[in-house]
Amino acid sequence: MKRGLLANLGIAFAVLVLVSPAVFFFLWMLSLSLKFEIDNSSYPPVFIPQQFAWSNYQEVFNSNRFLLYFWNSLVVTGSATLLGLLVGVPAGYGIARMKAMRSAFVILIARMTPGLSYLIPLFLLFQWLGLMGTLVPQILIHLVITVPIVIYIMISYFETTPMELEEAAIIDGADRWQVFRHVAYPIAKPGVAVSFILAVIFSWNNFAFGVVLASRETRTLPVAVYNMISFDQLSWGPLAAAALIVTAPVLLLTMFAQRQIVAGLTAGAVKGG
Amino acid sequence: MSQAALGATVGASSPAASPVGARKWRAPTYWPFVLPAVIVVVGVIVFPWAFTLWMSANEWKIGGASNFVGFANYARLWTDPRFIEAVWHTLYYTALSVFAPLLLGLLAALIFHARFPLRGILRGLFVMPMMATPVAIALIWTMMFHPQLGVMNYLLSLVGLPAQLWIFHPNTVIPSLVMVETWQWTPLVMLILLGGLAAIPTEPYESAELDGASRWQQFRFITLPMLAPFMLVAAIIRSIDALKSFDIIFAMTQGGPGTASETLNLYLYSVAFAYYDVGYGSAIAVVFFILVVAMSVLLLYLQRRAQWNEIRTDA
Q1: Which of A101, A103, A183, A269 has a 20 to 30 A CA-CA distance from A249?
Q2: Domain count, chain A
Q3: Which of residues 169-188 of A touch B (CB under 8 A)?
Q4: Per-residue pLDDT averaged across B205-225, rounded?
């Protein structure tokens, strides 16, 4: 369908209005992180400073054991995502093939449960097991995030893969595991990528679990940034730089894997409703 | 034929093609695939549910002895003004942060449904807030809301509006937080509705065009009704997430000023991890959980009824 010039201008304007809050926010974040204190505390605000304060980033990396916390985040998110895939991909297959959609109901309710209500009992359990002070409690509790995401997305992918191939493989003498490994899994690989990306993002972003379970040595990045506000850092520049570093990996992933994220969120979300 | 080639050709077939003859595959032999997940889910999801229920019937402080008190913790809830207040804050916060993203998400979906250059990149930019780390976002928004140095008051002054105290005043704190929540989660509503728009066939529009229906009439009598189930799904997801909202409120206000933005989740946190009263905290968690499920069931029921009505008018 062809649109007139006026309609085109209207759409261009509407898109501009829609996108500008997001674009402005992230540009402002960047601006805050690159300004010296003088520019950050001036009114009216300075958008592009005369001098860039690259030292803000330097300061973040030098102080506050930032690299340790980065490593903690990597370990927690990495382990929770890999365990989530290891457990969740076969489970999604099993549930899809057994047509046991009712068992997926548990996952749905898990999605509805407030995260904090997992924290109280698991906190007591981890204390009792003597695991506090290590990264293990956080890895385990992040499974609450990753496993449901993976199972839900994988169910929807395995549901749509055709059965004829699997039946043929069975007739050829393959056992169930071989069918899964060599027939079903390769077809559903895009789904694995989608659930991997979403699990990484939501685990990386998680804050509530860490704020309760992490000690000074075991903080993940979101918790570390939060603690910077209250204790170490009061000037805006380094704080904004830290915030940007924390969220940069996720934003990059969003930009490069936008298609998968959109597919996963709409599949997962629509089915998750 | 190689495995990869097989995979490629099959993967290309449309997802709409449903598996044929799937019924005879209902066999218990798939249990080994599910078993590890069952163990994990029981360990980190079902066990906490059960244990929370048990704790809620006990007077139990971290580090102290527990003692069974039955429903006493629940009875205490109804006489706890801070709890009652938190319930109202939660409902207020949720109502706003369902309504605003739904409205804006609908507009955004209608616009992004049109074809225009750079659509993919622009949609990517639009989706970014949803994926960004909430604590990092909250930190920057806190700076932007700063009454003297924040850029928000500067932007208001540009259009001639008076400066606000945003999250630093009891009357404006919840709307300001909802603004952040809306900024962050409108994209999810947009994505869901975009999926809905893509699923609407073109025939109704063609015949409406022939009958001389205006654009507004097409929107009102074709698009909106066909989008309704998707909007309900979006509303359900939004209310679950808004009820549970924690990161942004905690990082920006910690429930303050005073207790002006203390929602159930924030109060739950204080009771359990600041006062270490896990028995009472568990009772709050149980009531909170019931509230979330009740809200979702209500909306699901509305969805069922909406579909039922549609079928009846069709017949």
Answers
A1: A269
A2: 1
A3: 176-177, 180, 182, 186-187
A4: 88
A residues 87-116 closer than 8 Å to B (CB)? 87-88, 90-91, 93-95, 97-100, 103, 106-107, 109-116
Name the DSSP letter for residue B30.
G
pLDDT at B6: 34
User: What pLDDT sits at residue B4?
Assistant: 36
Q: Is the peptide bond before B32 cis (omega within 30 degrees of 0)?
A: no
Beta bridge pairs of residue B61: B277
Strands B58-60 and B66-68: antiparallel
- B268 to chain A: nearest residue by CA? A116
Give the CATH number for residue B193: 1.10.3720.10
Strand ranges inside chain B, DSSP E:
58-60, 66-68
CATH of the domain at A258: 1.10.3720.10
Interface mutation target, options B135, B149, B243, chain A, most CBs of A under 10 Å: B135
CA neighbor of B73 nearest in space, from A23, A120, A12:
A120
User: What is the overall mean pLDDT for chain B?
Assistant: 84
Residue B274 lies in a domain: yes
Distance, CA of A126 to CA of B51 (rounded, Å): 13
* B162 phi and psi angles, rounded to 5 deg: -70, 155
pLDDT tens digit sequence for B28-84: 578 889 899 989 988 888 899 999 999 999 888 877 777 888 888 899 999 999 999
Residue A45 lies in a domain: no
**Coil, strand or helix at B276:** coil
Q: How many structural domains is chain B composed of?
A: 1
A45 secondary structure, DSSP code: P
Distance of alpha carbon A158 from alpha carbon A185, whole angstroms = 8
Instruction: Identify the burial level of B110 via C-beta atoms within 10 angstroms of its C-beta, where 0-12 means exposed, 13-18 middle and 19 or more buried.
Output: middle
Going by C-beta distance under 8 Å and a sequence separation of 6 or more, which residues neighbour residue B137?
A: A25, A243, A247, B129, B180, B184, B248
Please indicate, yes or no, if residue A41 is contained in any of the structural domains: no
Which residue has better confidence, A267 or A150? A150
Q: Give ipTM to 2 decimals.
A: 0.90
The encoded tokens of residue B169 equal 């005043």
Contact A40, A52 (CB under 8 A): no
Q: Which residues of B touch A121 (CB under 8 A)?
A: 47-48, 51-52, 55, 282
Tell me if the pTM is above 0.80.
yes
